[in-house]
Design brief:
With 250 residues, the protein is mainly beta. It contains no helices and twelve strands.
Length: 250
């Protein structure tokens, strides 16, 4: 099992939230599977900039469980210096993934400089319900409890707390569809209100299209939307990003 490099296409940086639903370009094989994507942006003229982002995913499929790890990052190289803009590590374990109702547990660590987020750490557990599962598509609905802690890089005098800890509900709708071999679509949308203040809600959505090119190579197009009803400091409530890249499955 090995991963090789991936070619590059221009795109906007991906949002920190990762689509947890696996695109099924090659089916659901038992054992260890993986995929990786990389995208690069080159800018010259008034501003010299190089930007790259990538994602690696490892899945372990067993008869009674499905565990996976997702790692992603975004970097800038400007004026000879390197800046890490965002990064994420997400791990999840699903028990009895073929059952109608499957308990699951998850954990995540991430940061995002564009949203003044120095560190977010969260853990949670819940269950997903399979609404439908066919040869070429599936739909799942989930509900979980999660505890999150954040450290924010805000300027002095900011009225928003620099450190927060909250209990949240996390509901999601996950859809994946492979209309024909070599073409796959997936979408995952989350609604995450605070349990003590439902007006403080986050809405996250990621839609992804993958087209198989040659052998294990595929082209990926991803649309991310993130809404925060109570953003820190001067951060905007809504982020939208479109990303294109070339991926490899192994």
């Amino acid at each position: 099992m090995a991963a090789v490099l991936i070619a590059a296409l221009p795109g906007l940086p991906a949002a920190a939230q990762i689509n947890i639903e696996r695109l099924r370009l090659e089916g659901d094989e038992q054992g260890l599977n993986g995929s990786a994507t990389v995208a690069m942006t080159f800018q010259t003229g008034n501003a010299e900039k190089r930007r790259g982002d990538g994602k690696v995913r490892l899945d372990l499929l067993l008869p009674e469980s499905h565990s996976f790890l997702i790692l992603s990052g975004d970097f800038d190289w400007t004026a000879g210096s390197s800046v890490s803009n965002k990064g994420l590590a997400h791990v999840r374990h699903i028990h009895q993934p073929g059952a109608r109702v499957s308990p699951e547990a998850f954990g995540q660590i991430n940061y995002d400089k564009s949203r003044s987020l120095d560190l977010r750490a969260l853990v949670g557990a819940g269950a997903r319900v399979v609404l439908t599962e066919k040869d070429r598509g599936r739909a799942s609905l989930g509900l979980a409890y999660m505890f999150e802690q954040e450290e924010l890089g805000l300027p002095p005098g900011s009225t928003h707390p620099h450190e927060t800890s909250h209990h949240r509900a996390s509901s999601f709708l996950a859809l994946s569809f492979e209309p024909r071999p070599g073409l796959a679509l997936a979408s995952t949308s989350y609604v995450q209100p605070r349990l003590d203040d439902f007006s403080d809600v986050r809405v996250l959505s990621q839609s992804q299209l993958a087209v198989q090119l040659l052998g294990p190579l595929s082209m990926d197009v991803t649309l991310n939307l993130a809404y925060d009803a109570d953003p820190p400091g001067e951060t905007e409530s809504l982020d939208v990003a479109l990303r294109t890249g070339i991926g490899i499955r192994f």
